[in-house]
Amino acid sequence: MLLGVGATVAAGIWPLNASATIARGIPLDVLARRSEHILVGTALEATCRFEYIGGKRRIVTDTRFAVEAPLAKAEPGESEVLVRTLGGVIGDLGELVHGEAELSLGERSVLFLRLRPDAIHQPTGMAQGHYPLYADAERVERLRPSPRLPELVHPERSAVRRLRGLDIEGARRLIQEALAR
User: What is the pLDDT of residue 20?
Assistant: First the structure.
């Protein structure tokens, strides 16, 4: 009995890191080809609602995304697109979907988007298709991974590894090269 209590106390004192989600890294050429649009823009407004997905009631977040420019592929033909992500908060009820993109209001980002049958867009590859922009010390905007990016299996060939830290023009060139292959 003392051994069992001792093991329980030890486990509480020395917590281990845990990863909630593991995903296979998506290569840049695959991510780009599976996307209808690759855009630079800003998340403007988000609304959460319930939606039935796979027969279960889930929370989804629809975000109005102002399109500033296409990074590659065709423009959507509109100045704004609606982007749906899984999870969100309604009242005091919340749903977190590990590995999903997290679009922060007012934040500029690069999005790889797939068009759903209902004409709503979703990030291709969930968080692997979302790259918030940040200004470095020289005020150059650079891509960084989505905040909810899961641990990646085989990250060495992933789009995340290749795009992380690039400026917008560098990312554009790399994406266009990947699409040309």
Answer: 55
* Alpha-carbon gap, residue 130 to 38, rounded angstroms: 10
**3 lies in a domain?**
no
pLDDT of residue 5: 47
In the block, residue with structure tokens 């999005």: 111
- Is there a domain that residue 8 lies in? no
Q: Round to whole Å and give the CA distance between 162 and 51.
A: 34
CATH classification of the domain holding 153: 2.40.50
Report how far residue 171's alpha carbon sits from residue 94's, in angstroms, rounded to the nearest whole number. Answer: 34
Q: Number of folded domains in the chain? A: 1
Q: Which residue, among 62, 66, 27, 61, has the nearest Cα to 178 in the 3D structure?
A: 27
Structural domain containing residue 106: 18-180
Contact 130, 63 (CB under 8 A): no
Place of tokens 């200004």: 135
Give the pTM.
0.86
Contact (Cβ atoms closer than 8 angstroms) between residue 78 and residue 67 = yes
